[in-house]
Write a structure and sequence with these properties.
With 242 residues, the chain is an all-alpha fold. The chain has eight helices and no strands. Among the domains are: 69 residues; 44 residues, no CATH class. It is elongated and about 170 Å long.
Length: 242
Amino acid sequence: MKQVQEAPELAALDRKLDLLTAQVQYLTEQARAVSRRQEERAELVQDVVPIVNDAFRITTEQLEEVQDYVDLSDLLRLLKRLLRNARNAEAMLDQLESMQDLAQTTGPLADSVVAKAADLLESAENKGYFAFTRGSARIVDNVVTHFGEEDLRLLGDNVVLILSVLKDMTQPQILDFLRSIISEGEAEVSRPVDASVRSLLRQMRDPDVRRGLALFMRLLRVVGARAVEGSKYDGRSITVGG
């Protein structure tokens, strides 16, 4: 009967011993974890202390260089100003980020535009646009060099008349007439010329030759009349002929 009563007490004692063992094991593991953290902190302190010392030394050296130019009140005022403008700085950073995103988005497009522009410039160079521009610049330079202010004023006063003459000269019938004369004249010049009196008299019997002489004489009459009218404008006498 006594042994039956002692059995539950032994079982309860065993459970208490097991619980105590588990608690001791848990406390041991916690102690080990604390010890490891302390060791890690000690190692971190050992690694950080030299870095902090170097940073403090460098900071001290840099501050010694500017201590004659910077006061503590200036630093405090700058710090307060930075704190007051923290929102502005944040907004500025947001804008920079937006600009960076925009640059990343438009970067390929910009590269395409640059490549297209380079192709156009190369094509213009091959076609001679730049050479024409350089030649035009030399023409303008010669005009500026050889014409004075009075010449430019007269040119401005008569530019409408000059353009009218050019317009008349560029009429299709005028250009066809000049082109035919030049082409046929080149062919005639290349042929041998008989300057004898008999040859000249024979040519005078040609209706086309007589018509050309009549037109030439009419043109001389117009030139003479215009020369007389021009002498009335500038006050100078123009003598034609002997």
